[in-house]
Amino acid sequence: MSHRVLVIPGDGIGAEIMPHVVRVLTALGPAFDFSYADMGGCAIDAHGTPLPPDTLAAAKAADAVLLGAVGGPQWDDLPMDRRPEKGLLGIRSGLDLFANLRPALLFAPLADASSLKAELVADLDLLIVRELTGGIYFGEPRGVTVDNGGRRGFNTYVYDEREIARIARVAFDLAAKRNGKVTSVDKANVLEVTQLWRDVVNEVHAEYPQVALDHLYVDNAAMQLVRAPKQFDVVVTGNMFGDILSDVAAMLTGSLGMLPSASLNASGQGMYEPVHGTAPDIAGRNVANPLATILSAAMMLRYSLNEAAAADRIEKAVQTVLERGFRTADIMPSGRAVGLEVLGTDAMADAVIAALS
Ligand code: NAD
Questions:
Q1: Is 7's C-beta closer than 6 angstroms to any atom of ligand 1?
Q2: Separation of 24 CA from ligand 1 center, angstroms?
Q3: Is 290 helix (H, G, I), strand (E, B) or coil?
């Protein structure tokens, strides 16, 4: 039986990187049945909508979805409901992908690429679990109105206890298989919705006596992430705080170009994508780092396709390539480059494929 993978290359460097990731997967061994669909800016241009119904239907029928990235300045002036990002939000909620897993793992050869001191981040291995289908990004009412001659913008930050409990269970389950610690991040001193978040996380914790739990306000969590990131194992938080904190975690590891992510629903089906966007500033120049998307494919093998050995092979190959001194421009240290070689997108993917064997 081959794995049915829906590939959504998207825009910018997403579309540029994706063919190389398919090459890596094809070189691995397990049989894949790849199909392709449009989403984001390219879908707006071709179909007039960022998420064509056929794309969502194909995603629902697939075992897993592999996504590049969507968006770009040419679509920034469209009305909000027709912007590329609407496609992303639509597929996440259409597949009910409520759990976003963002590991921040520092490959030892890249310790120097972090903006923090190497000793603070060496061997860093933390996992941010972000609630993805609720919170302020989806809350109603929302909008901009004109009141008394002036414009007024508003959004609604809302979570119900079912949403909080299911993401808390994902975090506790993962922590039980890792280092046994969950840090829940909220703003319970100011926002009632996050006081409920804290209460429900505490209630679910009673089911997991083997896992330690602490709570941090989001401002303190941001500070701790850059002060002493190795104190964390699994961090669980809502949609907006998770969006921000995972980008902070990205910088701990040196580059957005290294960070994969997984978004799962209750049945284990998932969408896998790099944390980075379409990088319009470097798109089309064969300089983008393909490793975040390659590592996202490894997460797909592990979490949705039950191919843990193949996932290990990809991750070891990435480690080997870095140990051999190969770098894309974004992870090249400024100044000291002895023993290092800068590769383009295609050559980096070639190096990973060579290291698989
Ligand atoms: P970005 O992640 O695209 O780029 C931020 C910076 O990191 C840029 O300087 C870029 O060159 C660099 N960078 C990112 N990925 C890289 C890689 N693989 N290799 C080397 N350098 C890399 O974020 P942005 O500039 O804020 O957004 C650009 C567009 O992407 C926007 O339209 C935004 O909406 C979209 N976006 C999409 C997603 C997604 O599809 N999931 C996520 C974030 C941003």
A1: no
A2: 22
A3: coil
Q: Is cis: bond before 290, omega within 30 of 0?
A: no
The pTM of this model reads 0.87
- Tokens at residue 270, please? 């998932």
Q: Looking at domain 1-102+270-357, what is its CATH homologous superfamily?
A: Isopropylmalate Dehydrogenase (3.40.718.10)
The residue whose C-alpha atom lies closest to atom 1 belonging to ligand 1 is 277
Closest C-alpha to ligand 1, atom 38: 277
For 65-74, the pLDDT digits (tens) are 999 999 999 9
280 ligand 1 Cβ < 6 A: yes
Every domain of the chain and the residues it spans: 1-102+270-357, 125-252
Pocket of ligand 1 contains residue 85 by CB under 6 Å: yes
Q: What is the pLDDT of residue 147?
A: 86
Residue 10 has pLDDT above 90, yes or no: yes
In this predicted structure, the answer to whether residue 335 has a pLDDT above a threshold of 80 is: no
**Among residues 292, 176, 181, 177, which one has the least CA distance to residue 236?**
181
User: Rounded to whole angstroms, how far apart are CA atoms 288 and 17?
Assistant: 8
- The CATH class, in words, for 125-252 is alpha beta
pLDDT tens for each residue of 99-156:
999 999 888 888 877 888 988 998 898 999 999 989 999 999 999 999 888 999 999 9
